[in-house]
Amino acid sequence: MKTHILNHEYNSQEMQRWLRAVEGSCDGLWEWDIRTDRAWFAPRFLEMLGYSYEEFHLGVASWRKCLHPEDRYEACNAIVRHLKLNERYDTRYRLETKGGDYRWFRSRGMVFRDDRGRPICMAGSIQDIDVYLRTAQMLREKESQLLQKQKMDAVGSLTAGIAHEFNNLLQAIRGYTTFAQEALEPDSQPYQDLQCVQTASERASHLTRQLLDFSRAEATKNRTCIADEIVRDLAHLLRPLLPEHIDFQLRFGPEAALVWLDLQHAQQALLNLCINARDAMPTGGQLLVRTEVVTVSELTAAGYANLTPGRYVRFWITDNGKGISPESQHQIFEPFYTTKEVGKGTGLGLSMTFGVVQHAGGHIDVYSRVGEGSSFRIYLPTLEEETVSDTKQITARTGRGEKVLLAEDDALVCELGRRMLEKAGYQVITAGDGREALELCRAQADKLDLIILDIVMPSLTGREVLEELRRQEIGVPICFCTGYDPAASHSDSLRSLGCAVVAKPFNEEHLIETVRTVLEEKAVIDHSAANESPQQLVFSETDQVAAGAQVH
Predict the structure, then answer these.
(1) What is the pLDDT of residue 122?
(2) 411/358 same-domain check
(3) Rounded to whole angstroms, what are the CA distances from 5 to 12, 238, 284, 449?
(4) By percentage, how much of the chain surpasses pLDDT 70?
(5) What is the CATH number of the domain that holds 457?
(6) What is the value of pTM for the model shown?
(7) For residues 11-37, average pLDDT
């Protein structure tokens, strides 16, 4: 009797431990009586779905009813395989909660059999893995976006490098062709032949500009723009290009916003998307361009590789055309990738759009289904205050014998620049790389009126030469000449250093205008300093030493 009581107490204690473990577990427990098709679910299981025990009275039938339609077959088949083939029962499926949404669950269990091997019941646990799966999916998407961004950055660097070299060749072709034409009569056949060369080089320059738009290694002219006005102006450009069987609509959000970007590039980027939408609807359809102001939360921004929390203008370009396959969606922003027939597309339109958006600090993505259409979303950060940039009108002027140092590693371009500058009345000395340029600057600093530096040069880059000159307090004005800068070649960055910019391929007029403007600005500064110097030196005798030190 005593032993029986002790065993009963032990079993009771074990049961209490088991019950506490069940109550403390985050998993829900279940048991299915195969013979009666009745099921028991622990309270935790029902809590996960938001039901009471009375509401879930149908047992297995209630469970089947809650299964997501897409998961129902596999969820039931997993049980059959476990019962008949003795496969491990460990599966995932979605269940509908009382609130009407679906959540992911992981269910594990095992069958219990009688002495004859017939299944009696199954028992196991169910775990809510919805947050885990959604977080894992978000991380996978972000990783994919980061890999894609790295890939696009690498392609962009390669593309910009090719465009830079190509621009040097175009610079030589266009420059020397101009020199040859100057020696000919305009109505002569050789002159006309050379004009065809100029036309071809202009077309090639347009191609490199598209490449640089993708890589954003070309100087841009950013300005403050009203987002809705960009779209309205786009509509004027687009409507003549759309056939009558395409219904074109504009929709604007209730709130207006300012953005900071290159207006011409932005309109071209949006136009590219609209033209692609038109081409995707050869038999007609609807094209919708919509704007709205949205706030991107930290949680939302975490799902994107290049978005930060804040206010954005979101542009929608939506069509109900052919749609884009999942495979193509991963490649459409790469340069030269196109799904159009040969001769009907360069593959640079969307890559240029991608580059413009990236350069503006934004994000672009696409949602599409084959046969249903596509929707592109562009996020651009809003401006709180309007930024006003000053512009100047420049007219062509000639030199007055000023001495200019031209540093360019491409021999053809260097010789071309020298001839243009000397023809305009400047004295020119040349350097073939950054180190030679720095040595010439040190030796002739007091004789130089201007230094023209190519950004990308051997030994030392143009930026490095500038930094060294400023460190040594050599105050000769600097002008950058470039078609590519891997660090930050856009004009705002270069001009923030106090330097003018000449973009390749340049013509003679543009080069001379820029040089003359820089030199005239220097003359104004020198004149102002000369007029102010006597006033700065008017002190009492006791203060002259200190004042001289300050002025010096």
Answers:
(1) 92
(2) no
(3) 10, 91, 86, 109
(4) 74
(5) 3.40.50.2300
(6) 0.41
(7) 69
Q: Is residue 508 within 8 Å of residue 175, measured between CB atoms?
A: yes
47 vs 235: CA distance, rounded Å: 54
Residue 262, domain extent: 225-384
* pLDDT in the model for residue 6: 44
Closest CA to 123 of 155, 85, 79: 79
CA–chain centroid gap for 535, Å, is: 53
For residue 41, give the DSSP letter: E
Residues 248 and 372 occupy one common structural domain: yes
- Structure tokens that stand for 309 in this block: 């929390």
Residue type, 328: S
| Tokens standing for residue 500 | 């003018």
The answer to whether position 152 is within a domain reads no
Overall number of domains in the chain:
3
> Same domain for 375 and 409?
no
Spell out the residues 6+ positions from residue 507 whose beta carbon is closer than 8 angstroms to its own.
174, 175, 178
Mean pLDDT confidence for 224-253: 87
Higher-confidence residue of 493 and 245: namely 245
Residue type, 216: R
Q: Tell me, what CATH number does 28's domain have?
A: 3.30.450.20
Strands 119-128 and 102-113: antiparallel
For residue 215, tell me if it sits in a domain.
Answer: no
Residues 377 and 417 in one domain: no
- Give the three-state DSSP class for 61: helix
Region of poorest pLDDT, from 25-29, 56-60, 471-475: 56-60
Q: Is residue 405 very low, low, confident or very high in pLDDT (cuts 50, 70, 90)?
A: very high
- Those residues with Cβ within 8 angstroms of residue 293's Cβ, 6 or more apart along the chain or in another chain: 253, 255, 256, 257, 311, 312, 313, 314, 382
Torsion (CA) 166, 167, 173, 179 in degrees, nearest 10: -170
Please give the Cα distance from 43 to 30 (Å, whole number): 10
